[in-house]
Specification:
Number of helices: 2
Radius of gyration: 29 Å
Oligomer: single chain
Strand content: under 5%
């Protein structure tokens, strides 16, 4: 007669086998998806880089300006309405 512990171990082994079978089916699909994602990310990065550089040029000085605005807003205790 099997004990509760034996039955749990058997169920555990069965569930692990089912898990492994599912992962074996999905692994090639995951690898294919991941390859497509890497390719898309590389393409996107190449297309975005020139725009990012243009934005950086267009926003030259913006960070310092925003810091000054924040400092003045703090000094005004948030009462910034003209």
């Amino acid at each position: 007669m099997a004990t509760t512990l034996d039955l749990l171990k058997q169920q555990f082994a069965t569930l692990c086998q089912q898990r492994d079978a599912i992962l074996a089916r999905s692994e090639p699909l995951r690898a294919q998806r991941d390859a497509l994602v890497r390719q898309a990310e590389a393409t996107l990065a190449a297309e975005v880089a020139p725009l990012a550089a243009q934005i950086e040029v267009a926003e030259a000085g913006l960070t310092d300006l925003m810091k000054q605005i924040a400092q003045i807003a703090t000094a005004l205790d948030g009462r910034t309405a003209a």
